[in-house]
Amino acid sequence: MANFSDFNTGVYFNGLFGTMPAFPMEYAGWEAAARAQLDDVMYDYVAGGAGDEFTQDANVRAFQRWGITPRMLSGAAERDLSVELFGHRFASPVFMAPVGVVGVMDAASETPGHGDLEVARTAAATGVPAVMSTLMQDPMEAVAAELGDTPAFFQLYTPNDRELAESFVRRAEAAGFAGIVVTLDTWTLGWRPRDLQHAAMPQLQAKCLANYFSDPVFRAKLDKTPEEDPGAAAIQWALTFGNPGLSWDDLAWLRGLTDLPLLLKGICHPDDVRRAKDGGVDGIYCSNHGGRQAASAPALDLLPDVVTAADGMPVLFDSGVRSGVDVVKALALGATAVGVGRPYGWGIAMGGAAGAQHVLQCLLAEADLTMGLNGYASVAELTRDVLVRIP
Ligand code: FMN
Fold it and tell me: Per-residue DSSP letters for 77-109?
């Protein structure tokens, strides 16, 4: 059986024949390579976050407070990293979190401005699923056509126009998405000093709004088409995007929109997990948006109580994952699947689908080796008692 860590061996063998890695091997390198491709506005939009950025830094540091207990002679020469999610078996527990500007991050690609297609191609090539943002640069139907056999999920930013929300969900179903992920932590934009300093926001420049501009419900509300007047269409988007009134009372409506698996993203408190469960959702997505929305506690510290409250329901996790070791730790704290945002975003920026694929190969090879060398042969063996708290 092949292990993800075969990638590791391949790199050394390639070196014997004079072929060096095309991309850096760890997070700081991916970020630096991406930075060289992006202008300051785009780089800051991705790298930055809420307020003094304590939250995004704390997300990363939270992983450093856990260590893994090694076990010897356990016969973990072959590892099974596969997980079952909503009736699909995935070869690994890693997924690509929704990144709303990835559509315009593919600066190094031959046809820039189609980063969402590059993400879909990455998913097709690797089998690593993607949660695709509402904020795409290509319409969801075109993105879905590039996914190959890898199931993907559609992330819904619930607009304040119910008819438009319903249209998005209908389209996602028709395009073949395997589930709907409703993001709850972005009913308005967070306080982001870097973006404020640039006084710039991609969507207001009519970027990454293809799902809106191609939507019959959205278009019907415009005086001129988005092709004739993109600026006016972007303003209409701004008026529609925010939804401060969304509450638990709306969950029954959201649930009623689809028979697909429904997940709520941004859930970090056990009481919210229980309310979501009572409302009939199929999965919880524990995340603090990578520290981009509200300044908050590190998501990893909130994960164990969320998992306990979920009581067997799948819990997806993201925020602060920077390495394969982090993936293993999040699994041991109870995550069913572990998402990355900025890491694969940098991959798209440094090399399109090839760059993102490289990032995922590195994460998976390191996760696989970390499990194997520590004596754990499957995801099921990664339980909380595998971890030691580092003072
Ligand atoms: N989350 C969403 O639910 N929808 C989005 O459109 C979205 N856009 C994002 C754009 C950027 C540039 C970044 C960095 C994150 C975005 N997120 C969005 C949050 C990610 O899905 C994810 O929660 C976060 O990136 C995880 O943290 P990490 O970057 O530390 O891995």
Answer: SS-B--EEETTEEESSSEEEPP-TTGGG--TTS
